[in-house]
């Protein structure tokens, strides 16, 4: 049975799905996206991702191509059709296609594409947390990182560098030497007093959906919590470090730029938050 994708109102076999040559997401990175994890055939943090999607579109003045309810219905239909029990959904909305010009045609309509990835191994997430090694590098992105735009070139370049060095993720660092976030995840440390620390929300970082849910779990678990910046040096000397994202959940970081974090094992607080998150997600 082929996997299907959703492109502008049509369900098409995934390998035949395509966007027009002059779609603005391709030509200009003029679009936004969301990634959900699917657990037990249900979207994890469904509403929060939709809220961020609407916000990103609003900031870029791209109209919703259809009501949220209708989009959600197509997403669910695709999950059923592709028989996804555990996996991911990628949804992209671009400003649309028109003759390549920085100013789009007046009658342009947004395009929407949705595809799924089957990842049965996610069912094992509780048993097999991957210990992440990361590098750090300069944050070369634009000043509106709060928008989940498809323009990801600085993220991609730094992530390729991490991969080349045998690492899983890279943390981006601002001009003041403070960590902003990962190339596709939010960044966290835990101090020796067991205070959980992550950078405060602003235009400097993406408001991570997993970050938001983990903030709720920190409060539930009764850990101390500080929303503030931290330097690479502070992170290297932290008791624990971790990342959060839809696809990493709570991912333990055991090495930063070759420096072992704590005793190189998954920390107690990280482990607890990971467990709470996975339970809440249905994993
Ligand atoms: N990335 N920061 C950046 C730059 C991201 O790209 C992401 C998500 C996050 C975490 O956000 P969330 O918790 O909502 O997934 C933080 C997705 C997974 C991606 O690009 O594949």
> Largest beta sheet, briefly?
9 strands, mixed
Instruction: Give, in order, the helices and strands.
Output: EEHEEHHEEEHEEEEHEHEEEH
Q: Given the helix and strand composition, which structural class is it?
A: alpha+beta
The beta-strand count equals 15
**Ligand names:** N-(5'-phosphopyridoxyl)-D-alanine
Described by the principal axes of the CA atoms, the overall outline is globular
Q: Gyration radius, to the nearest Å?
A: 19 Å
Topology:
Layout: E1 4-7, E2 10-13, H1 24-28, E3 31-39, E4 42-43, H2 46-60, H3 68-81, E5 87-94, E6 111-118, E7 132-138, H4 153-164, E8 169-173, E9 179-182, E10 186-190, E11 195-198, H5 209-221, E12 224-227, H6 232-236, E13 240-245, E14 249-256, E15 259-260, H7 268-281
Parallel strand pairs: 7-8, 7-14, 11-12
Antiparallel strand pairs: 1-2, 1-6, 3-4, 3-5, 5-6, 8-9, 10-11, 10-13, 13-14, 14-15
Bound molecules: N-(5'-phosphopyridoxyl)-D-alanine.
N-(5'-phosphopyridoxyl)-D-alanine binds next to helix 5 and strand 13.
Describe the structure.
With 283 residues, the chain is α+β, with helices and mostly antiparallel strands. It has seven helices and 15 strands. The strands form two sheets. Strands 7, 8, 9, 10, 11, 12, 13, 14 and 15 form a nine-stranded mixed beta sheet that branches. A six-stranded antiparallel beta sheet has the order 2-1-6-5-3-4. Strand 8 and strand 9 form a beta hairpin. The two termini are 26 Å apart. Bound molecules: N-(5'-phosphopyridoxyl)-D-alanine (PDD). N-(5'-phosphopyridoxyl)-D-alanine binds next to helix 5 and strand 13.
